[in-house]
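Technical annex B. To support the medicinal chemistry partners, we prepared a structural model of the target in complex with LOW37U6P, based solely on the information shown next.
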Amino acid sequence: MCDKGSMAQYTRVSGFVGLITLQNPPVNALSAAVRQGIVDMVERALSDPIVKSVVICGQNGNFCGGADIKEFGTNMSGPPLVPMIDAIEAANKPVVAAIEGSALGGGLELALGCHYRIAHSKARLGLPEVTLGLLPAAGGTQRLPRLVGVPAALNLITTGRHVTAAQALQLGIVDQVTDHNAVDVAVTFSLSVAGQSLDARRISTYLCPLPSDFDALFEGVMQKVRQSARGAIAPVACVQAVRAAATLPYTKGMEREQELMATLFTSGQARAQQYCFFAQRAVGRWRMPSGARWETSKPRPVHKAAVIGLGTMGRGITVALAQTGLSVVAVETQEKQLMEAKQAVSGMLERGAKRHGVVPTLDRISYSQNIQAIAEVDLVIEAVFEDMALKTEVFQQLSAVCKPGTLLCTNTSALDVDKLASETPNPELVVGMHFFAPAHVMKLLEVVYGPRSSPQAVATAMQLGKKMGKVSVAVGNCRGFVGNRMLMPYLQQAFFLLEEGATPELVDQALEEFGFPMGVFRMSDLSGLDIGWRVRKRDELVEPDMASGKSARIRQGSRYSPLGDLLCEQGRFGQKTGRGWYQYDKPGSRVARSDPWLHSFLVEYRARHGLVPRSIDHQEVLERCLYALINEGFRILEDGIAAGPEDIDVIYVFGYGWPRHRGGPMFYAGMVGLAKVLERLEHYQQAHPDVPYLQPCSLLRRLVAGGSPPIHRWREVIKKHQSQL
Ligand SMILES: CCCCCC/C=C/CC(=O)SCCNC(=O)CCNC(=O)[C@H](O)C(C)(C)COP(=O)(O)OP(=O)(O)OC[C@H]1O[C@@H](n2cnc3c(N)ncnc32)[C@H](O)[C@@H]1OP(=O)(O)O
């Protein structure tokens, strides 16, 4: 017997079991229609006298990915989740959740309303709402602590992390784990418990186990959460909701859960985080200005890859490749460097394997000093020192050694990928792969295509990035690509603010309060001031004999601040030398302390150049640094270097520490209001006419003139704008 009409299919199986199957591909999200289906089918099963027990499962081996996030921005209709789950829990016949694939968010909350949970061994469970700026508001914050205790519930709910079926069993979230068909096991099990009392199976009736150090525990967790949340409100609300579970009866706790959720649900932060969720997936649907796109470009198979150059980046890339299961040839011409790299890579793989409880993949890597060793690989990632002449030489060698069709990738943060491609006989096989340090940890990968890169080469690099667990974004070739290009105006404004009266501490504090893990000066100290110095020298911006006055701060026709150069001349390269914008206890130490030398240096510098310091507040720091960066983002869109605002936002959230609860720079501009961003840029441009980065971009003007459409409509405007340029 079967009813296929709704988005929850009803079948009677094994004679006496009502089987309800959620059907909403790809993840069986709880849309209004699915919820209605569940309500109707549960009612049907419970009212059918032949049915002794009920099993709920999901179609295509996937239980449920939670509430339908797409519905959040709409007038949510259909039956609400809470009464639906309460009705399941109150049922007088056993209801068993058969969990395959994922049980996340509302999906796990649905399962927690069931009387029993049986999971397949490959299933994953979690309450990831916090990552969407929400909390588990279908009873998750009240049932989970009652089931698994407060500390475990706090951990799962405030981090949103997923657990494996085995971990879920250990925690007590599921009752049984099986390697067999979980639905079949659940059906048999449900019949075995039919007719038994369900009193002890309704989690909402449990007393929440209270830890002895209750106050200290909550205080500690709240402190930790506030610190790591960097201004995000959802993690804090999660702690408050769990505290309600521990201190209030279930119904009162539920009221608190709903109250907290209502605040989060309408907050800009939730909108930003949900935008990030979809943006992260949208960047996989890449397209190039030529019209080539992800759906029509088939990647080449990559079984064996090579890494050339085993410095810090090359080592991280080798680890990341080996962890995907590929065979890797790692080449380093210097013997000492090769030996050190081998040891370092093995160490990283062993530590990674230990963390994940698996066997390290050391034998997947072969090391060589000879570039001939890469003759048979399908793809090469060159990671030698960031120097065009050196990279060109290496690329010429690669072209001579590799078998025909091998994809040649360069790991570069700013060099001209097209120029490098033009030095090879097959420029269509060349793309940039801009990894972020440490390359085996950082999630972001910019895949840089030049005008001659083939769609297949881009598709292959994008697919490899995905396999390596990266969030890969395809971007066009220009100086600094997307991320580093936008960083230039940001850094420049920070330097100018110092000239005008700010301190590194003030600028960093403003940016950290905004939500960056580190302000611009602490970040520069960490990455090394010498990196930018080298680039500026190459660009002939650094003048050794610096005069005084305004003219000394004009380079190539625009305002220039030599502050970074002056620090480098003093050997102040940041953490590695123990001195930079801050001072450190010793070279390599990480704790930044305010440096009186730097403050005196700034005072002298301003005096020498006739700069009268003024008081600068946090708002000016944010407007100048962030709006200049955003303005460059609009230029990048105008130039077609990024296909859409989502690409830029994903790059900034995953690679540059932009706070996720603010959605990314382009989303943030929309939240602030494009007209306001434009007005402030115009204001600052008038005050600083010698700073081209503050000149508002024409795309921004056009968007404002067009009534500041929502971000999902920008692509239409960009297309029209580009066609008229
Ligand atoms: C006052 C209001 C009351 C509301 C109370 C109810 C609150 C409930 C809270 C929730 O349940 S919030 C949702 C919690 N769930 C999640 O966060 C899970 C999100 N999904 C994932 O983590 C992953 O998608 C997955 C389930 C682990 C599957 O990963 P996989 O890599 O296999 O596929 P994806 O590429 O990520 O996704 C495929 C496709 O599906 C879309 N999608 C996934 N989950 C949802 C969802 N919950 N709602 C809507 N759509 C979803 C995803 O966007 C992809 O589609 P796209 O077109 O490529 O974007």
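Notes passed to the chemistry partners:
Residues 26-27, 29, 65-70, 81, 102, 104-106, 128-129, 132, 134, 137-138, 261, 265, 278, 281 surround LOW37U6P (CB under 6 Å).
The chain is about 45% helix and 10% strand.
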